[in-house]
Structure formats: structure tokens, C-alpha cells
């Protein structure tokens, strides 16, 4: 269930399911029943429930949930945005089955134990304003917990944006598949806890849509996890090169080095300017050190040392030197991760970078945070668009995998696939965490994992490492969290494994 469907894709799935013989009202009956079941399970103590129903099918789900909750003994009031006669289709059928009176939608809610938000779901088409906005405001200030049906009203299911104003829910009950708006901020925050229910639409029906957006979960990428065969030596496990800054700026590269090493690269080499050698040498034990003062030196080392993946950017400085080094590295056969200064050095000269990327056949991952993303791609992408849309455009333009970092990190590939992560805790926003991330990506690329999967896996592992550690995390803690996470991806043991001793 890792596909994320936009409201438009969801409507297509809906139509396919109906054409295959599941009547719309049957789907709505199951959706409404699931909402009621979730409420009975999670808000069992609620007595007075207020259900707010909109004019479309989201409201239809609300009428059905109201019926089930009343049958279960709760005291239920229903407010409707329109009169019964003004409802159409399945929503009209659902309202008919609610025999108690309908109140007119107003801000006069009292203080119910629970409010069910069935005002707007996948059919949100414009910004919320006027009386409906006043109702949403009243709900948000009422102090009553809210269960949202499908989406918190006012959240755009495709983008996670607040359209005018939106409900802050305690829990959101959605159906079939989550939507990008459940994962992208601020939508994710307004959903509260997210519950996903099956309403009888088969995976085969969802497959027909050919979704290209996925929740970033191990099931998305674990089939590509690098296998560790016992007959391999360290050279077969990939060689990561990390370009470092000068004598006073080697910390970021050292974090990347540790991330790459812990991720399982067989060899890691610091590629450092001569002035940094005496600072770096005592700080490296397993990783090696080679001197590279120019782009030529870097190219030679990559070829001679058979370096399979290079990180460049953390701490390397913004300017001509880094620009030349990046272009030199991009001309090699190594997989490349471009971060931080490697991206900012092309501000205003993105065409130079894009030209080099477009003719490059090897895997490349760009890892900008929001500031770096907008600086690099300014003027090259549409003015408006969600983080997901912009990241996809950027990946196509750059012919590279783009990882747009943040609390809702998006990874997009040039072929249109994208993943959205939701597992990064707030304390992961700490200096140097991004440097470790570049090392994890390079460590996976060096071991042969494809770029989209490697970047997505690295984001998930990075978030999990931070969540496992907990508050108080500093970037230096992240690499040491990796072994316990990676253990779960090692291939299962076999009884006939010659090296197995238990
Ligand atoms: N997919 C599934 O599998 C299933 C989906 N189901 C459910 O159906 C829901 C989708 O239903 P939907 O398409 O009828 O849209 P919905 O969210 O009710 O909104 C449309 C109404 O809102 C109105 N409206 C729009 N924007 C507005 C605004 N800014 N401010 C004010 N009004 C606004 C719009 O009015 P109009 O634009 O016509 O003026 C129209 O009347 C989905 O979220 C899920 O809950 C389940 O029942 C079964 C299985
Ligand atoms: K809703």
C-alpha cells in the first residue's frame, strides 16, 4: 500500500471500481462504516458527537458514519451544508438513510465530545472562504477533538497545501491509498494520526492507474538493497570518495565519510587539498586520505583508485574552485552526490551544471534543502507548485535524482517516480545531519543500488536513525545508529550457508 494517489487518480480508481461492479453507494457505505469503527475504537468514551457534512460525497461518508455511531448508542447531531433535496447521487442516498433531522451548517457547535469533519475531501476545488471558513475556524477553536473524513477539510490532497483555511484534525481516516497531501507539509500536520482503510477496491484496480508517487517505506526499495556475498572482498563493496574542504573546513566531509563507511562501502577515501592533510590524517582511521588540489587530480584519483561514488559539496566552499571540481567529477564514471556548496556554487549558472548533468550517463543525486533548491533552480521551474511537483520538474530538467530535503523529504527521478518521507523527527534538523545523509547515499550507490532507490533508502534510514536515537541527537550520533537499522536489511540466513555457525 505504498502508492500515493492524487484526488484525480483516486477518482479514476473509483470509476474503475464502479465499472467493475462495485456500486458507488457500496463503497461509500464501507467508507462511512470504517469512519464509525475508527471512532468507536479510538474515542469510545465520546457521548455527544457532531457530524459536519458538506455538499458532496465526503458529506455522504459523514451521513453513513452518523448512522453507525447513533446505532452504537452515541448522541449524534448532523449539520449539513445543503438541504437534503439539494444533495445528489450517492450522497443523497446516504442522507436518505439518516432519518433524524438535519441542522443547517453553522458555527453554533456547542462543545461536543467529538466533531466529525465530512465537509470537504477529494473534491476541494478552490480556496475555502465565507461561511464555510467561519465554520472551520469555529471547529478549530472549539476545543473538541476532530476526526476528519478522507482529508482535513481545506487541505489539498494533491499538494498538502492549506487552501484558504483548514481543519486541524486529531485523526484522519482515509480509504484505499493515502494521498500526497497526507504526507506533504502542512497537510501531514493537520491530519493528526492517519488511519488507512480498505473499502473493497482491489490492488489490481489501483495498479491500472500506474501511480508514480510512493510513500517512502522499505517496501519501495528493499528489493534493490545491496547483497553482501561472503566471497566478496572490500573492493567489491564499493569505494566512496569524499571531497573535503580546506584545513579549517573538514568536519562536514568527515561526517559524510562516517556515514558512507557505516553504510557498508568497502573503502572510503578522503579527497583533500594538501593544506588539509595534517588536519585530516589524525582524524581518519579506516578511511584513507589522498591529496587532490585540482579537478585534474580528482579525476585521476577517481580513475586510479577505482572510486565508484563521490560526494562533493559539504564544506568545500562556494565558488570557482568547487564549480571546476564538480564539473571534473561529473565527467568521470563514478556515481556522484552533489550537496551544499556544490549546488550553491552554480547559483545563477545552473545552465552550466544542467548541461553537464544532461550528457552524463552515470547515476547522480542532488540533495538540496529548500534554500539551495530555490537558489539553484530559480527561473527554471514553474513559479507555483507543490514540493512534489517542483522536485519532479527539477529531476527531469537535471536528468538526475533530486532529493528535496526537509521534514517531508521528496525524492524524484527523471522518469517521474517520486517518494515522500514522513519519518523524520523534528530533532533531525541539526547541523551536519545532511552531511551524514550524503555519505549514506554514496555508500549505497557505491554498492550498486540504483540512484532513486539509494536516495529514498538513505532518507528513510536517516529518519529512522534520528527517531531511534531520540531528542538530544547531534549529527555525530547518526552513523552509530546505522548498524542496528542495516541489520534488518541483510539477506536472510540460510541453513545451508557454509559460514553459518549456529
Ligand atoms: N475515492 C473513493 O474511493 C471514495 C470516495 N469517497 C468520498 O468521496 C469524497 C469525494 O467526493 P466528491 O468528489 O463529491 O468531493 P467532496 O470532497 O465531497 O467535495 C465536493 C463538494 O464540495 C464543494 N466544494 C469544493 N470546493 C469547495 C470550497 N472551496 N468551498 C466550498 N465548497 C466546495 C463542491 O461544490 P461545487 O464545486 O460543485 O460548488 C462539491 O459539492 C472523498 O473525499 C471521500 O470522502 C467515498 O464515499 C467512497 C469511496
Ligand atoms: K473532510
Observed structural traits:
502 residues, alpha/beta, Rossmann fold, 10-stranded mixed beta sheet, 40% helix, 14% strand, binds potassium ion, Ribokinase-like
Indicate the radius of gyration in whole angstroms: 26 Å
Kindly state the mean pLDDT as a whole number? Answer: 95
Model regions low in confidence, pLDDT < 50 over at least 5 residues: none
How many structural domains?
A: 2
Q: At the fourth CATH level, what is the homologous superfamily of the largest domain?
A: Ribokinase
How much beta, percentage-wise? 5-15%
EC number: 4.2.1.136, 5.1.99.6
Organism: Agaricicola taiwanensis
Subunit structure: Homotetramer.
GO molecular function: ADP-dependent NAD(P)H-hydrate dehydratase activity; ATP binding; metal ion binding; NAD(P)HX epimerase activity
Quick overview of this protein structure:
It contains 20 helices and 17 strands.
Fold blueprint:
Blueprint: H1 7-19, H2 24-42, E1 48-53, H3 57-71, E2 75-80, H4 89-96, E3 103-104, E4 114-118, H5 130-142, E5 146-149, E6 171-175, H6 180-183, H7 187-191, E7 193-197, H8 203-209, E8 213-215, H9 218-221, E9 239-243, H10 251-262, E10 267-272, H11 277-280, E11 288-291, H12 295-304, E12 309-312, H13 320-330, E13 335-338, H14 340-344, H15 350-358, E14 364-366, H16 370-377, H17 387-398, E15 401-404, E16 410-412, E17 418-420, H18 433-446, H19 451-469, H20 478-486
Parallel strand pairs: 1-2, 1-4, 2-3, 4-5, 5-6, 6-7, 8-17, 9-10, 9-12, 10-11, 12-13, 13-14, 14-15
Antiparallel strand pairs: 15-16, 16-17
Helix pairs in contact: 1-8, 2-3, 2-4, 3-4, 10-18, 10-20, 12-13, 18-19, 19-20
Amino acid at each position: 500500500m505504498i502508492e500515493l494517489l492524487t484526488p484525480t487518480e483516486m477518482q479514476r480508481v473509483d470509476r474503475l471500481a464502479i465499472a467493475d461492479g462495485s456500486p458507488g453507494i457500496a463503497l461509500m457505505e464501507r467508507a462511512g462504516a470504517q469512519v464509525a469503527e475508527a471512532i468507536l475504537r479510538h474515542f469510545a468514551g465520546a457521548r455527544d458527537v457532531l457530524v459536519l457534512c458538506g455538499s458532496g460525497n465526503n458529506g455522504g461518508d459523514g451521513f453513513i458514519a452518523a448512522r453507525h455511531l447513533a446505532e452504537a448508542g452515541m448522541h449524534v447531531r448532523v449539520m449539513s451544508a445543503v438541504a437534503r433535496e439539494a444533495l445528489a447521487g450517492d450522497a443523497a442516498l446516504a442522507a436518505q438513510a439518516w432519518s433524524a433531522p438535519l441542522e443547517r451548517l453553522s458555527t453554533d457547535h456547542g462543545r461536543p465530545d467529538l466533531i466529525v469533519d465530512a465537509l470537504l475531501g477529494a473534491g476541494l476545488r478552490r480556496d475555502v472562504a465565507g461561511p464555510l471558513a467561519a465554520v472551520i475556524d469555529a471547529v478549530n477553536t472549539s476545543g473538541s477533538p476532530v476526526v476528519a473524513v478522507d482529508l482535513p477539510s481545506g487541505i489539498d490532497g494533491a499538494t498538502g497545501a492549506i487552501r484558504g483555511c483548514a481543519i486541524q484534525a486529531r485523526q484522519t481516516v482515509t480509504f484505499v491509498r493515502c494521498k500526497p497531501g497526507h504526507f506533504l507539509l502542512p497537510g501531514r500536520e493537520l491530519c493528526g494520526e492517519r488511519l488507512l482503510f480498505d473499502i473493497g477496491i482491489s490492488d489490481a484496480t489501483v495498479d491500472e492507474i500506474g501511480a508514480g508517487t510512493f510513500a517512502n517505506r522499505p517496501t519501495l526499495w528493499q528489493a534493490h538493497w545491496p547483497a553482501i556475498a561472503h566471497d566478496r572482498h572490500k573492493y567489491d563493496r564499493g569505494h566512496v570518495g569524499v571531497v573535503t574542504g580546506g584545513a579549517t573546513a573538514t568536519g562536514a566531509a568527515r561526517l559524510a565519510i562516517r556515514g558512507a563507511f557505516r553504510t557498508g562501502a568497502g573503502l572510503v577515501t578522503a579527497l583533500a587539498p594538501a593544506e588539509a592533510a595534517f588536519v585530516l590524517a589524525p582524524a581518519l582511521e579506516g578511511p584513507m586520505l589522498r591529496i587532490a588540489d585540482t579537478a585534474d587530480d580528482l579525476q585521476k584519483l577517481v580513475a586510479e583508485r577505482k572510486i565508484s561514488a563521490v560526494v562533493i559539496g559539504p564544506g568545500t566552499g562556494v565558488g570557482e574552485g568547487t564549480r571546476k571540481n564538480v564539473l571534473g567529477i561529473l565527467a568521470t564514471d563514478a556515481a556522484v552526490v552533489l550537496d551544499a556548496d556544490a549546488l550553491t556554487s552554480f547559483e545563477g549558472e545552473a545552465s552550466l551544471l544542467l548541461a553537464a548533468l544532461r550528457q552524463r550517463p552515470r547515476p547522480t543525486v542532488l540533495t538540496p534543502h529548500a534554500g539551495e533548491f530555490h537558489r539553484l533552480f530559480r527561473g527554471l521551474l514553474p513559479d507555483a507548485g507543490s514540493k512534489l511537483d517542483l522536485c519532479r520538474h527539477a529531476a527531469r530538467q537535471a536528468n538526475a535524482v533530486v532529493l528535496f530535503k526537509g521534514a517531508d523529504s521528496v525524492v524524484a527521478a527523471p522518469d517521474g517516480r517520486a517518494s515522500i518521507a514522513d519519518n523524520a523527527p523534528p530533532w533531525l534538523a541539526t547541523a551536519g545531519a545532511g552531511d551524514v545523509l550524503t555519505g549514506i547515499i554514496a555508500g549505497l550507490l557505491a554498492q550498486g543500488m540504483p540512484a532513486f532507490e539509494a536516495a529514498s533508502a538513505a532518507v528513510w534510514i536517516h529518519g529512522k536513525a534520528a527517531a531511534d536515537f531520540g531528542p538530544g541527537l547531534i549529527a555525530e550520533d547518526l552513523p552509530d545508529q546505522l548498524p542496528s537499522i542495516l541489520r534488518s536489511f541483510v539477506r536472510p540466513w540460510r541453513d545451508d550457508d557454509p559460514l553459518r555457525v549456529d
